[in-house]
């Protein structure tokens, strides 16, 4: 499957701080000192897409949204 | 939809490692099934992976203890109680739940837990030294699996490890289905009284620990709230990981080809930890949720007030999600399993548990290249009658 540009969004109001995104895709997601999601890269490179999709799928609070751009 | 009689739930598993047989056969036919709870309530049993996620992620399903019904006969559990005291946040919905959880998630981030790795490795090495001092054979549960997470959570919370006999005993009684209501209630109250005393001590003599940190972070937290939070973190912090470490070791020893694969390539350990969480799914029953309104889940209508019990063990064996789900395969991609639950109540301490399991299994296999059971497997007593599955003891030789 061809993987075009991907735009990542996070909603910190939904975040429950489980840390799955920071575990699965640490180049794209981090946690602040209080434990909530920090988006490091809203337009990650193709090499990171699989991990980002996994993080979005596994987020227990559905706080990550993905948009295929372009 | 099933037109047959409602099922009842049993925590007795099939063999040593498989979910209860009824949940497995049900999942093949339908993701939700009518279930009769222990008090006669007619609710639902969820055995499908996607349905489990749908229920646990939906705010229309409440975690409030007073709305729920017990899946199996017993006096009390971590997940359901007559009424949730303030701070017992696994039984609150948002926004009450979020108020407590947001004070805690910063303590258990991926980054912060990784900083503990060396310290956990040291604790683990000391337990292995102790096993060697005792000599082969020894009980891996008592001397390795239970002390490691107990030492870790005690230090993090600020609970004296010297008091472990007290809190481990109360936790054990409170977690058992076989104890009387009086004994379970007494254990709950005594553990609460012990932790309440500790909270009051931290107010006057704060230290570098989570309880003291909570007192500073939110001066409005009452002693009752702090005691409930400490109760949840202490119990969930040692009982679960201890059982996962011991049962996971048992599973590896009973699957020698998987053990050999892990020994041959220690870099498989992170995947092996996830697979052990998926395959063993030690939480017997629950999470349970109560419908706050009529909700349709995968074509099935759940009526307001009906209680839904999710079988994480069954959902983690769903072939729609995990190919060849009945095989224990340390090389599989087990990520996405529901061993830590799903939704806003997903395990707070999961990143700590992952490191304890990774360090624990790795160090154990390194130290004892000839690790093996010291008794026939059928002699190992299984925790069918506790809230969390596992073994009562794991005699091993090396």
From TrEMBL, chain B:
Keywords: Heme, Iron, Metal-binding, Monooxygenase, Oxidoreductase. Gene3D superfamilies: Cytochrome P450. It comes from the Bacteria. One of its GO terms (molecular function) is oxidoreductase activity, acting on paired donors, with incorporation or reduction of molecular oxygen. Belongs to the cytochrome P450 family. This is Cytochrome P450. The lineage of its organism: Bacteria, Bacillati, Actinomycetota, Actinomycetes, Kitasatosporales.
